[in-house]
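From the methods appendix. Each design record in this collection lists the tokenized structure first, followed by the designed amino acid sequence. Records were kept in a plain field format so they could be parsed without special tools. The example shown here is representative of the layout used throughout.

RECORD:
FOLD TOKENS (246 positions):
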């Protein structure tokens, strides 16, 4: 169990808090494994009506712990990050995110799976995959163009242009922008409001809203995974990651 993932169950909401401040909540193997356990628990527990994932009012998630990620890939291990992506894809209940500060890589692509995203005004989003020698993941090659259009998706997902909370709101990636000190309270209120609603119609409507993309999403995620694993072994990726780690 990772010490960097905290969870609390209250009023029908399971709140997951990323708590690795010294690494800006970068996700390593143990954190991914714990996230998978909690997503499975939430899916299988009737009392949980909504899942809320958050950091704090200063930081959401700076993406993968690159040293851990590359070490696992070089050892030909099944990457825990991909297990988490599958858990995101297969999650059946309302999923809310509260975002502040950096949301990098998976810190942004996981938001594309959320039903609602509340962002603090200090949020900074970036998809730097090309710059480190890999490609889009977590179904972003399907979900991002659906959110923002193909041209904007290229700008954000391939060029890796950073964007702020107001731009994310305009692009339809987040539902609401608030002051950082209000973020966690607002997200909690939204999650609890959803949890009080009748479970069957909420989950049925959610399933219907996602039915068109769900039919192809797992196939897209599998293709992305194969390409990421291929690109991780290229000289460019190895060199780019080494320069970042040094």
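DESIGN:
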């Amino acid at each position: 169990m990772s010490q960097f993932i905290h969870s609390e169950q209250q009023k029908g909401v399971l709140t997951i808090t990323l708590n690795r401040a010294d690494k800006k909540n970068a996700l390593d193997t143990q954190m991914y494994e714990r996230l998978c356990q909690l997503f499975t628990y939430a899916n299988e527990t009737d009392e949980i009506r909504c899942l809320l994932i958050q950091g704090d009012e200063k930081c959401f998630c700076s993406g993968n712990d690159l040293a851990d990620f590359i070490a696992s890939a070089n050892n030909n291990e099944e990457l825990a990050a991909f297990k988490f992506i599958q858990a995101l894809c297969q999650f059946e209940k309302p999923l809310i995110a509260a975002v502040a500060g950096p949301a990098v890589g998976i810190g942004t692509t996981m938001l594309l799976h959320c039903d609602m995203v509340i962002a603090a005004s200090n949020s900074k989003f970036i998809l730097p995959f090309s710059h480190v020698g890999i490609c889009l993941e977590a179904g972003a090659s399907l979900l991002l163009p659906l959110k923002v259009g193909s041209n904007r998706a290229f700008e954000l997902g391939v060029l890796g242009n950073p964007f702020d909370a107001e731009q994310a709101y305009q692009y339809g990636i987040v539902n609401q922008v608030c002051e950082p000190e209000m973020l966690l309270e607002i997200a909690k209120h939204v999650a609890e409001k959803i949890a009080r609603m009748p479970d069957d119609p909420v989950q049925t409507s959610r399933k219907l809203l996602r039915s068109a993309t769900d039919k192809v999403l797992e196939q897209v995620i599998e293709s992305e995974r194969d390409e990421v694993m291929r690109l991780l072994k290229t000289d460019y990726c190895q060199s780019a990651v080494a320069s970042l780690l040094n």
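APPENDIX NOTE: The chain is about 50% helix and 15% strand.
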